[in-house]
Design a protein that fits this description.
It is built from nine helices and seven strands; from the N terminus they run H-H-H-H-E-H-H-E-E-H-E-E-H-H-E-E.
Length: 368
């Protein structure tokens, strides 16, 4: 973004100094006016007949008072300008630190913090809000950099495999063409799935959703029916129970969220006789979706990292049905876009318990 060019103007410190001085001069002038109105006006202007003594009249008092008042006003002007300049500098010192931090952030230094000392006031509230914003921006940039690096790595793998297969087929004319094409088809399909997942993840981060009333219980039934062949193939029993759970959000993204949760629960389950339990519940303010599966025991440290893009558990082996490592990351972004809460907990007997809480009303739109 190009830097905005502005014509030079008077500094805020100088404006405050003139404001202090003007206010103080006005107060002094009012004070002298009060002296004139309430004292000198009652002294007669002509000669005052008093035997044997000189009594000054109004003109005499004014001639004596005016020069002293003028010198007092000049002294007051000098003190007000000097004091106003010093006070304005002290008052605006925190603003200078905030401006310096903003300029460093504009140059790319997001690790800098203001950490303004002292008791709470308007400047310290502004500094704390700016520090919080910098921390969030830094975390977001770091997350995006990690995501870009992981995405580049994941996308490079199928492209490299495709290139290798093509080179082998070109150098070996007698190689089985059908096998090469089948392998290329599989690699290409995985690359397409990864690209679509990346686009969906970007869409969930945009925050621009078409909101409507969605019954999560119906979405769960549709997703379970869609994934039933995969469950039968793996010998997993899918149990769907719960109440009507209406929320407000994007039907497409919520369907993707439920599908990802069920798919994750199916592919990361026991080799045989596994179970996936899905429950929906509705409260006065929130609706809850819970997905629980059987499987290997997971540590709390491992579970806390599963929503990171391309992150897989140590026991999770990549297979044809295992996805591209973005399932729970997409779920986390969709829940965040709907201002909900996502919780992941390891089950004591093994497996993972995922709960999603969503509001029953539409969250305020976030403009970016």
């Amino acid at each position: 973004m190009p830097q905005i060019r502005r014509a030079p103007g008077v500094s805020v410190r100088l404006k405050l100094t003139f404001s202090y001085a003007g206010f103080l001069m006005l107060s002094g002038a009012l004070l002298l006016g009060v002296v004139w109105v309430f004292l000198l006006r009652y002294v007669p202007d002509g000669a005052i007949p008093v035997l044997g003594r000189f009594v000054p009249n109004r003109s005499d008092l004014w001639r004596a008072f005016a020069p002293a008042a003028a010198w007092a006003m000049l002294f007051l002007l000098g003190i007000s300008l000097l004091g106003g300049w010093i006070l304005a500098g002290r008052m605006l010192r925190p603003l200078s630190r905030i401006t310096g931090a903003a300029r460093k952030a504009a140059l790319g230094s997001l690790s800098h913090r203001i950490t303004l000392e002292g008791r709470r006031d308007e400047f310290r509230d502004l500094a704390d809000a700016f520090d919080t914003m910098l921390a969030r921006v830094e975390a977001h940039v770091a997350e995006q950099q990690r995501f870009a690096a992981n995405a580049s790595h994941e996308l490079r793998t199928p492209l490299t495999i495709s290139q290798t297969l093509l080179e082998v087929a070109r150098n070996d004319p007698d190689r089985d063409t059908d096998a090469v094409l089948e392998r290329l088809h599989s690699v290409n399909a995985r690359a397409i799935d990864l690209t679509e997942a990346l686009l969906l993840l970007s869409r969930a981060d945009q925050g621009t959703l078409v909101r409507e009333t969605v019954d999560l219980s119906l979405v769960v039934e549709e997703a379970a029916e869609t994934l039933l062949p995969l469950a039968e193939k793996r010998g997993i029993d899918v149990r769907v129970t719960g109440d009507v759970a209406r929320t407000v959000g994007s039907r497409a993204l919520l369907t993707q969220m439920v599908t990802n949760l069920l798919h994750n629960a199916l592919v990361h389950n026991l080799p045989s006789r596994g179970v996936v339990t899905v429950r929906t519940a509705a409260g006065p303010d929130v609706v809850v979706l819970m997905v629980e599966n059987t499987g290997e025991r997971l540590s709390a440290e491992l579970v806390s990292t599963l929503t990171e893009p391309f992150r897989r558990g140590a026991e999770r082996v990549r297979s044809h049905d295992s996805g591209v490592g973005l399932g729970l990351a997409i779920v986390e972004r969709i829940v965040r876009a709907h201002s909900g809460q996502l919780r992941l907990e390891p089950c004591e007997s093994g497996g993972l318990r995922v709960s999603v809480e969503l509001g029953v009303r539409a969250a305020p739109e976030t403009r970016r």
